[in-house]
# Entry
Amino acid sequence: MSIEANKASMERFVQFINTASAALADELVSPDAVFHVPGRPEPVSGPQGYLTIIAMMRDGFPDIQWALEQMVAEGDTVAARFVMRGTHQGNFSGVPPTGRKIEVQALNFYRWSDGQIIEEFGQPDMMSLLQQIGALPGA
# Structure
């Protein structure tokens, strides 16, 4: 696929992560896709694996939304900079709900093939997130 097609697919992907739509997961995530998640010893895979990642975030931040701030594409790869915003209303990483708002940067790299993600390396700023919910001292 072209760089422009990959960018357009990336815009659709943002709709998927903000809605956790199983139908969009099946459309946009290859059954063989591999997702490298910080803090997990093994990658997760396929549409259900990605829905698991989203569910983990939604458990702690039910109103979480990702805003795509910037993307750069080359070949089959798209680098995307997101800002995640939400309210800490559920248990997250062992931290009980605080009601605090978060605003966290993430930089992810995606590989696409035929309109589907086949690999992701995600790098959310977990230190900032944990500071914002009071799990770590602030800077």
